[in-house]
Give the backbone structure.
Amino acid sequence: MSVVLDMPQTSLYGVGGFEDKADVRDYDPWEHARMLGIPVVYRTDLPEADMVACYSEEYSAIFVRPDLHGAVERCAIAHEIVHFEHGDVGTDASQEERADRIAARRLIRPRRLAELAGITDDPAVVALELDVTEKLMRTHLRMQRQSGLPRHD
């Protein structure tokens, strides 16, 4: 796994002026939802059987399937917050990709990646350590490859 260490960090969690320093807490999507006034409601009757979460514009709420693995729930709520922030309605592949990219940037801090860089090259293990899904970890790695920024092992 390659980690970008030379990336200037002018924005953390999508908010300008913050730096990824050691004393900064990891992104908390539940806290972010509270700050935005979006209720997170647990429901077993989501519209699609394989859906783990969704944002409802009609109810201005995020619905989440109960009893998810912690990393899945954390990533799903972060993803759905992006849909709220962008006023997304319905399912569109570009909206889904944007939500994954922004959620990955918020949940995966460069400093935390750098701490894990020498431990393993397996994205699944790194994802487990960072409490994110492998899908979001792979989204983050794809963004790194596409950025063209220098990488250090």
